[in-house]
Amino acid sequence: MRLPRIALTSGEPAGIGPELCATVARAPWPCELVCFGDRALLAERAASTGGSLTLHDYARAEVRAHVPGELRVAHSALGSPAQPGRLDRRNASYVLSLLDAAMAGAVTHEFDAIVTAPVQKSIINDAGIAFTGHTEYLAAHSGVTRPVMLLVAGGLRVALATTHLPLRDVSPAITGAVLREVLDVLATDLARLFGRAPPRILVCGLNPHAGESGHLGREEIEVITPALEDARARGIDVVGPVPADTAFIPAQLVGYDAVLAMYHDQGLPVLKHAGFGHAVNVTLGLPVIRTSVDHGTALDLAGTGRSDAGSLEAALALAIELANRRH
Fold first, then answer.
1. Last residue of a domain, which of 255, 275, 295?
2. Average pLDDT, stretch 68-90?
3. In 3-state terms, the chain is what percent helix, strand and coil (to 5)?
4. DSSP-assigned beta bridge partners for residue 109
5. For position 1, what pLDDT does the model report?
């Protein structure tokens, strides 16, 4: 089997990302692992985790199998010295430069997948850079207009029709056109990446009780149901809209490959309850494979050596699996 080359971005330098990268590098992986970040920072945080790690400069050549306890580094210099737990807006551009470099390599097939450690949205915005998240940023920089966020925990897959929006903006954002695009991406990538062909998708309503026949909202009647009828007419196997409060009952989920939730906090609390610390965020609709952790930067844990690498390990394992299936 062809050995995949995986790009690993180390994320916010004040957070736990760099030390998580060091931790996963000590395990065996069936890939070549290339970490994007400041070499000195990675060495410093590796030391904080209490284990040894040998860093090598990354050079594009033939793919080399990962060696536990070693890590190839695509170096990018910090904008300002980083201290654990202390955000610095001068490093915002550095954080985004890691994503840009990894994405550029993935688009040209230098890398088979991208795995991202967490970033801090607030400090990037404080630096005057409009940023709502990895999903939207990577989509914009690859010319994709409709990325779809999918969270995976074991056999549970939850996709989102909308992502990082204030709750008051969710209803206007859910249109027939949006749902058509989201369902197309979800159905295509469940088949292409996960081998679920043809996939069966359970779709949540927006309102309590899926609108209660219009008494608790008309979005189900006027927008969601017509969009699902259109999807079925185009050959997509969708069921719904169903009340979100019963959509995730185990008996309800039998036979479905994914659930489509209408907004961030409708679907993700259930997913994270099922697998927090071991769940994976997958961006669908991109020209490349991208997975990430299910948590934030954990500034309070940075530099303490107490961070849990479980979600990054799961993200890397899934990236390797998806890369192998794709090729």
1. 275
2. 96
3. 40, 20, 40
4. none
5. 65
Encoded amino acid at 254, one letter? V
Q: Amino acid letter at 317?
A: A
Task: List, in sequence order, every residue forming a beta bridge with 114; answer none if it has no partner.
Answer: 7, 290
Distance CA 222, CA 318 (A): 37
Q: Are 293 and 195 found together in one domain?
A: no
Distance CA 314, CA 327 (A): 20
DSSP-assigned beta bridge partners for residue 259: 158, 202
| Residues pairing with 102 in the sheet | none
Which pair of tokens denotes residue 241? 């809209």
What six digits make up the tokens of 132? 């709502």
How many C-beta neighbours within 10 Å does residue 278 have? Answer: 18
State yes or no: pLDDT of 327 exceeds 80. Answer: no
Domain coverage including residue 228: 147-275
Same domain for 209 and 312, yes or no, is: no
**CB 219, CB 263: distance < 8 Å:** no
- Is the predicted pLDDT of residue 53 greater than 80, yes or no? yes
Q: 74 forms bridges with which residues in the sheet? A: 36
Q: Give the pair of three-digit tokens for residue 24.
A: 């996963």
The reported pTM is 0.93
pLDDT at 154: 86
Same-domain pairing of 131 and 225: no
Say how many domains are in the chain. 2
